[in-house]
């Protein structure tokens, strides 16, 4: 997969498993994403969540996407995005966010952008294939 | 979900997203669970893999399962298993390890067990968790 194909794969299969590190401990959970393009992958959660606290304390992440026997792992550092226009765009797209945002304001949302710097792919068609990460 | 229901769920939906920490950097990949029962959750991998080296160095792990709107996360410490009977059983079910075993011996088959993991369940069919609510942990 080239970079364009990777972004298309993530767009078509938007649920990734995001890993973070807190001290020596890894954590992982399913995370949807808002958008994946040349500017990065946009993730959203809220500031009461452990994942937001973990990302602010240590922005290193790896996210694993898996669909139709193909796995794509991307890693890098996230940066928090505080832009209200982007937060509003996300709330408009995902109405389930509305009640809490109406109650607590847009700052309640935590938005992160990942510009992946490494990627690794694996496929069930080539189970013992090379999974060494490549630079993006 | 209680302990038995969680182990059944894992047995039926064995694809785990297994996270490790290498210093400050997290890693995560899909892995098939070899077995999940009262004794723990077992994984196998080829020992030249990064995941093997990462777990030897830092056994802290979290694994995430997802199926039918239910997510289960289990965290704890992995223990390496060197038992030959288990390695033979693994090779039977994962014959693609054979060339590596022929070349490098049984050390090629890496196995870890996660004992006494702590599980947390999120059911997306139910009402959303209130902001800031603490998680419920189930001892496995």
Explained architecture:
The complex is a heterodimer of chains A (136) and B (140). Chain A is of the alpha+beta class and 136 residues long. Chain A has a single domain, classed as Pnp Oxidase, Chain A. Chain A contains 4 helices and 9 strands. Chain A has helices spanning 3-12, 50-57, 84-93, 98-104; strands at 16-22, 25-31, 35-37, 40-46, 60-67, 70-81, 109-114, 118-123, 134-135. In chain A, strands 1, 2, 3, 4, 5, 6, 7, 8 and 9 form a 9-stranded antiparallel beta sheet that branches. In chain A, a hairpin with a 2-residue loop joins β3 and β4 (40-46). Chain A is globular, with a radius of gyration of 15 Å. Chain B has a single domain, classed as Roll (Pnp Oxidase, Chain A). In chain B, a hairpin with a 2-residue loop joins β3 (35-37) and β4. Chain B is globular. Chain B is of the alpha+beta class and 140 residues long. Chain B has helices at residues 3-12, 50-57, 84-93, 98-104; strands at 15-22, 25-32, 35-37, 40-46, 60-67, 70-80, 109-114, 118-123, 138-139. The chains are: A alpha+beta (136), B alpha+beta (140). At the A-B interface, β1, β2, β5 and β6 of A face β1, β2, β5 and β6 of B.
Care to give the gist of this entry?
The complex is a heterodimer of chains A (136) and B (140). Chain A has 136 residues and is α+β, with helices and mostly antiparallel strands. Chain A is built from 4 helices and 9 strands, in the order H-E-E-E-E-H-E-E-H-H-E-E-E.
List keywords for this structure.
heterodimer; A: 136 residues; alpha+beta; Pnp Oxidase, Chain A; nine-stranded antiparallel sheet; globular; B: 140 residues; 25% helix; 42% strand
CATH architectural designation of chain A: Roll
- pLDDT < 50 runs, ≥5 residues of chain B: none
Overall number of strands of chain A? 9
Largest sheet of chain A: 9 strands, antiparallel
CATH class of chain A, named Mainly Beta
Which pair has the most extensive contact? A-B, 33 and 28 residues
